[in-house]
Amino acid sequence: MQKYILAFLTLFTSAIVFSQETVEKTYSFTLEEAIQFALENNYSAINANRDLIDARKQKWETIAEGLPQVNGSVSYQNQLKQPVSLLPAELAGGQAGEFIPVVFGQPQTMTATATLTQKIFDGSYIVGVQATKSFLSYSVNNEEKTDQEVRKSVVESYGNVLLAQESVAIFEKNKNNLEENLFETEKLFENGLGDEESVEQLQITLSSVDNQLKNAIRLENITRQMLNLVLGIAIDAPTRLEENLDNLAVEQIDFQLMETDFNIENNVDYKIAINLTEQRFYELKLAKSRALPTLNSFINYGSSSFSDKFNFLGGDQDWFDSSVLGLDLNIPIFSSGKRSASTARAKIALAKAETQLSEAEEQIRLQLEKAKSDYILAIEEYNTAKENLRLAERIENKNQIKYSEGLATSFELRQAQTQLYDAQQGYLQSMVEVINQKTTLELILNNPESKL
Q1: What is the pLDDT confidence band of residue 197, given thresholds at 50, 70 and 90?
Q2: Which of 200, 316, 421, 450 is the 20 to 30 A CA-CA neighbour of 55?
Q3: Would you say the C-alpha torsion 406, 410, 415, 419 has a positive or negative sign?
Q4: What is d(CA 254, CA 438) in angstroms, rounded to the nearest whole number?
Q5: Which residues contact 77 (CB under 8 A, 6 or more apart)?
């Protein structure tokens, strides 16, 4: 018995350990790893892939409609009250002008039939098969568009987490420095060597920085949860980022990207606009095809049995076979202008789609120029913010020295500190902006050789 109890406890302990390991699993990503993970696990990406699979099935569904179709049917009838027919009485030796009531056949009937049908010519079917290629292409491009949106969301979310982490670190450092300054200033004031206003100024600054630190900690948690959501994992799952915001921003500065040849046919929005135009074109062909005749063939084979009682499953029951071969030709003749109106509307829809395609092409070219401008601006802002941070640190340091020597007021020190804090946040935000703007430009270019 002890052996069984020990085995059970071992199994139970292992299950607990395994459960804890599963819950405590920590995800670790570089930016590129996070993108690749999201492309496989993001909720929208998963459904976009399902849409593509669905489109392939729909393509075959359309093609199969024109292939041979076989259908079977079994029917059973029991005439509870059989119909009566009247026959002239003279047929049975009766008097002329009189009729004899007669019941024909047996009350119960069972029939089994199999029918094979085949389209021979149907204009709408031909157009439908042609349109499936365009629809499948649209589904492929839509999946690519979804992947681009996932990439952009991952980059933005990843950058926001790094920004929040850096903000927490900076606020903690600033808070520690302020606490040291406040401690020293309070001691000076207690010893009569300082003024109360200096203490109060530092207390105001410390209180503000402390609130900003608390908010940054909350934002770090929220941005991490948002990243997890984009990645397609539980929002509370532990996630560690392997990138450094400063290094990542430097890596994203690539002026050669500005010289990349732009092929608008690579742009996914343009490809989708082409797909929509193609769909309007096939809708016009479909409207025209409705004026064409349709021809279908069929062959039918069946067997029927009759009885007074339900004994159709018996081996001695007689069955009578029948078969029919035929053609169905349907010729549209007159529709009171319905078909011509439908064709005219399809022509208008195609013309509108062609105009929208031209507009989309110009919009994409404008987006490209704006993305280039925004990317250059982001790099310039980054360089400026980096230099401003260096200057703000020097100014704040000088004011710290002057304040300790009694050459600067607490108000002047607080101004220098506030300027430094603004420069720190501006610098962090500028790095995130470089990363985001490069991503936007790359997505518009959609160069197969480029890599986020």
Answers
A1: confident
A2: 450
A3: positive
A4: 8
A5: 108, 109, 110
Rounded distance, CA 168 to CA 164, Å? 6
Q: Whose CA is closest to 239, among 247, 231, 250, 251?
A: 231
Confidence of residue 372 (pLDDT cuts 50, 70, 90): very high
Using CA of residue 142, residue 148, residue 151, residue 153, what is the dihedral sign?
A: negative
Asked if 285 contacts 347 with a C-beta cutoff of 8 angstroms, the reply is no
**To 5 degrees, how large is the angle CA 92–CA 98–CA 100?**
55
Q: What is the DSSP letter of 320?
A: E
CB 143 within 8 A of CB 195: no
Q: Which residue has the tokens 């430094």?
A: 420
Q: Give the relative orientation of helices 410-445 and 196-231 as an angle to the nearest 10 degrees.
A: 20
Estimate the crossing angle of helix 123-190 against helix 268-289, to 10 degrees: 150
Mean pLDDT of 133-145: 93
| Domains delineated in the chain | 27-65+122-292+346-445 (1.20.1600.10)
Identify the pLDDT of residue 181.
Answer: 80
Closest CA to 231 of 392, 62, 46: 46
CA angle 313, 315, 316 (to 5 degrees): 110
Closest by CA position to 138, among listed 239, 28, 56: 56
Give yes or no for a contact between 37 and 29, defined as CB atoms under 8 angstroms apart. Answer: yes
157, 182, 197 from 204: Cα distances, Å: 33, 10, 10
pLDDT at 92 (0 to 100): 73
Find the Cα–Cα–Cα–Cα dihedral 209, 210, 214, 216, rounded to 10°: 20
Per-residue pLDDT tens over the stretch 299-357 = 999 998 888 888 777 767 888 889 999 999 999 998 888 889 999 999 999 999 999 99
Q: Has residue 153 got a pLDDT over 80?
A: yes
DSSP-derived letter for residue 263 is -
Q: What pLDDT, on a 0 to 100 scale, did the predictor assign at position 448?
A: 64
What's 218's DSSP letter?
Answer: H
Amino acid 348 reads I
